[in-house]
């Protein structure tokens, strides 16, 4: 109960012993944890540790927003508390709940005792009244189940509070967050007011699926995290010790950057670059060509249409001067695309999709990747469609299950 009295004091203290002396120290400390930050990011983090403001990180999925919170916690030795937001979430999941199971268990065990309280009550009304008088026993701190916000505020040790994917939460929850983050205190009618002793470092992330309230943005430091520069992405890939040589990693980063330029439903993020590097390393690849990239493209592109677009673009991306490869078994377009293809087992899960792409390109002659005709050809001729089943399986096994975890 000690924290209750603090509710009346004049608010939480900013960190009396700030962890970083300079922006450079932030860069170095994060790097020690395996997180590669540029100066803009590190400056914002530095300010977060010095100003009494939460940090709102916005940007596409997979650019290191969640990871930053984890690594900041590790770098500062603070515990990480995480509130994962989702649609329809109500505030009890963010603030606190009553531990109903525990309340029930206590009433079961204390049945006799409770019986005594109402034993000589002349009527039901009086009995209810008596129980009511004792209600506070069951709505006390003992039966409180703190959720991340209350836990952050009650914590004896300063923490990093990550409010992840806040754009998924409803606006009602956003209002609760705003209020809580404004004062760093939570009032529980039955118990009292809890107030943070030391201000947590608060990071909110958003994948921009909807606009956040202006009031929330106003209260926060703000950083838009985009895909990194080629240089920083290479550094990140290197730091992950993927097993891929530096020169191949450099080429790969450029290919991924090229894929990001295509209008994909889901552009590949940093984690996909890392996964691709690992995949290629495991396969023992010592040269990047469009064949091996095509064979493994489902590691980075997770939707059928995206796969088709990526397969079209890969030869150009891996070698801008590429002349469209001659089809090894001629231009025979009669040999049944898709199902029943006798070579179906020679190219991994997406093997025939790759061949399909090549077939189509071959038919249209030299250097026509991306031309309207070409695009139409792939759509209409359906071989890609037939094989969509396969690439769909690819995206299920590689992507969707993991998407939320990003
Ligand atoms: N700056 C970085 N340094 C090191 N690894 C990073 C960096 N940014 C992203 N990553 C890698 O990318 C992965 C995905 O990042 P994550 O934080 O989950 O993305 P987001 O929360 O933005 O969707 C992380 O697990 C990490 O491996
Ligand atoms: Mg995330």
Task: Please explain how this structure is put together.
With 406 residues, the chain is α/β, with parallel strands linked by helices. It has three domains: 2-95 and 147-224, P-loop containing nucleotide triphosphate hydrolases (Rossmann fold, 3-Layer(aba) Sandwich), CATH 3.40.50.300; 97-141, no CATH class; 230-403, no CATH class. It has helices at 2-6, 23-32, 39-50, 65-76, 100-109, 111-119, 124-133, 135-138, 148-154, 171-183, 214-219, 230-239, 246-261, 270-282, 290-295, 304-318, 351-363, 372-380, 383-403; strands spanning 55-58, 79-84, 96-98, 144-146, 159-164, 185-188, 192-195, 201-206, 221-224. The strands form three sheets. A five-stranded parallel beta sheet has the order 2-5-8-1-9, with helices on both faces. Strands 3-4 form a two-stranded antiparallel ribbon. Strands 6-7 form a two-stranded antiparallel ribbon. α12 crosses α13 (246-261), α13 (246-261) packs across α16 and α17 packs across α19 (383-403). It starts with a helix and ends with a helix. The structure holds adenosine-5'-diphosphate (ADP) and magnesium ion (MG).
């Amino acid at each position: 109960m000690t924290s209750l009295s603090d509710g009346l004091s004049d608010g939480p203290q900013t960190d009396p012993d700030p962890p970083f002396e300079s922006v450079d120290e932030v860069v170095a400390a994060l790097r020690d944890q395996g997180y590669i930050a540029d100066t803009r990011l590190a400056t914002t983090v530095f300010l977060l540790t010095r100003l009494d403001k939460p940090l709102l990180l916005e940007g596409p999925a997979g650019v290191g927003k969640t990871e930053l919170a984890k690594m900041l916690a590790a770098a500062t030795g603070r515990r990480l508390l995480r509130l994962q937001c989702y649609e329809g979430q109500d505030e009890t999941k963010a603030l606190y709940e009553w531990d109903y199971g525990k309340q029930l268990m206590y009433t079961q065990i204390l049945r006799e005792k409770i019986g005594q309280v109402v034993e000589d009550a002349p009527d039901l009304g009086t009995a209810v009244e008596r129980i009511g008088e004792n209600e506070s026993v069951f709505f006390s701190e003992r039966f409180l189940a703190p959720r991340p916000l209350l836990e952050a505020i009650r914590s004896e040790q300063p923490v990093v509070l990550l409010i992840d994917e806040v754009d998924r939460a409803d606006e009602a929850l956003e209002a609760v967050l705003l209020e809580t983050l404004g004062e760093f205190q939570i009032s529980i009618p039955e118990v009292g007011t809890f107030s943070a002793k030391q201000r947590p470092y608060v990071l909110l992330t958003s994948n921009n699926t909807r606009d956040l309230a202006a009031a929330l943005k106003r209260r926060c430091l703000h950083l838009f995290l985009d895909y990194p520069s080629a240089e920083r992405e290479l550094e990140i890939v290197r730091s992950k010790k993927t097993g891929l040589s530096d020169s191949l990693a450099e080429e790969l980063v450029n290919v991924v950057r090229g894929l990001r330029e295509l209008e994909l439903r889901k552009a590949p993020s940093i984690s996909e670059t890392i996964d691709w590097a690992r995949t290629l390393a495991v396969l023992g690849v010592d040269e990047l060509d469009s064949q091996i990239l095509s064979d493994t493209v489902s590691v980075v592109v997770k939707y059928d249409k995206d796969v088709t677009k990526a397969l079209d673009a890969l030869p150009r991306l891996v070698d801008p001067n590429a002349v469209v490869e001659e089809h090894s078994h001629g231009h025979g377009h009669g040999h049944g695309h898709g199902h029943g293809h006798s070579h179906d087992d020679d190219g991994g899960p997406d093997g025939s999709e790759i061949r399909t792409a090549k077939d189509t390109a071959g038919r249209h002659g030299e250097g026509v990747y991306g031309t309207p005709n070409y695009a139409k050809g792939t759509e209409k001729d359906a071989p890609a469609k037939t094989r969509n089943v396969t690439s769909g399986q690819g995206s299920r096994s590689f992507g969707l299950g993991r998407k939320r975890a990003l």
